[in-house]
């Protein structure tokens, strides 16, 4: 039997073993074609089928409404940081957009957008605050939605619904009308929890996600957006990144990342077999609860994020005695628990427990942490 360690990487991250095995079996001869998917014309009927099935499965998994386009793009979520403003700022001729800052990724999005227009901060958690009398460090909490200030004539409001590095997740998307900005489309960077839970398209006008966190290998970026937001690109926008060109050519304006789309398509089929997004969400809730319950009960480890903002996907934690960090990581690897080191900007540890990381892996991590605590506590 193939023995693989548990992989807690934040991204690129664990893929379902069944998906890897199917890809391996089909690597040199896809379904009797005598060719690898990598060798096929992106315009041929075989790849067209792969691409169409991927889109249909994604639409089914997320119940994407018919008036939303599904695009497969390149450039990652980082590329979208520029592609979004270049495509949307021209919508109403005012060139304004508002951003909610909750950590490293949303801050990067905001910084990039500033190159293209009049960009304001609608809310930020970049300072220390008090929540229920307890002090919360910067970037460890979501600013309460009622306090967001959105310009009613902004071309869009941008937020990151799962801050991969800080380990924050927004459970309920804001109702723009309640913020006095009913005509402002909500644009969401959902990279690191895409397909881990349903998406409320009555609130999100556009969602984008790089595949490599939860939906496939690096190389393809999924964009799901209201069709009426397409067609307003600024003249500076490269034609390959103009949503109108991409949508008009079924994501084949130029050669798409064919193998990454094929792999993401296999992940979509795997998800359907697991029972779809509702079933995977239930599993994700159970995994996150097990890990956070343990962290909360322990005196040895600390979970820095406010409980109401904790991510189900990325759980940062600290050892109270940070001089034990190196030993913790080295022994974790010996125990088959890989890539637990926290992001350099946060320090400590981070366990990313995406869709493809099963409860068994979370339990192995908790057992190891208990054992380490017993030996050092
Ligand atoms: C990883 C990540 C990004 C950056 O993705 P790239 O593919 O490296 O461009 C952006 N936003 C979030 C939330 C991420 O997790």
Kindly report the spatial arrangement of strands forming the biggest sheet. 2-12-11-10-7-3-4
Overall structural class, as computed from helix and strand content, comes to alpha/beta
Number of helices: 9
Q: pLDDT under 50 segments (min length 5)?
A: none
Taking Cα atoms only, what radius of gyration do you get, to the nearest Å?
A: 21 Å
Largest sheet: 7 strands, mixed
What is the fourth-level CATH superfamily of the largest domain? Type I PLP-dependent aspartate aminotransferase-like (Major domain)
How is the topology of this model organized?
Elements: E1 6-7, H1 17-26, H2 45-62, E2 68-73, H3 76-88, E3 96-101, H4 104-113, E4 118-124, E5 129-131, E6 134-136, E7 157-160, E8 162-163, E9 168-169, E10 186-189, E11 206-210, E12 221-226, H5 243-248, H6 258-273, H7 276-297, E13 301-302, E14 314-319, H8 325-334, E15 337-338, E16 349-352, H9 359-376
Parallel strand pairs: 1-15, 3-4, 3-7, 7-10, 10-11
Antiparallel strand pairs: 2-12, 5-6, 8-9, 11-12, 13-14, 14-16
Bound molecules: pyridoxal-5'-phosphate.
Pyridoxal-5'-phosphate binds at residues 11, 76-78, 105, 160, 164, 189, 191-192, 210, 213.
Describe the structure.
The protein contains nine helices and 16 strands. It has 377 residues and is α/β, with parallel strands linked by helices. It folds into two domains: 25-273, 3-Layer(aba) Sandwich (Aspartate Aminotransferase, domain 2); 276-376, Aspartate Aminotransferase, domain 1, CATH 3.90.1150.10. The longest helix has 22 residues, at 276-297. It is globular. The model has no long low-confidence stretch (mean pLDDT 97). Bound molecules: pyridoxal-5'-phosphate. Pyridoxal-5'-phosphate (PLP) binds at residues 11, 76-78, 105, 160, 164, 189, 191-192, 210, 213.
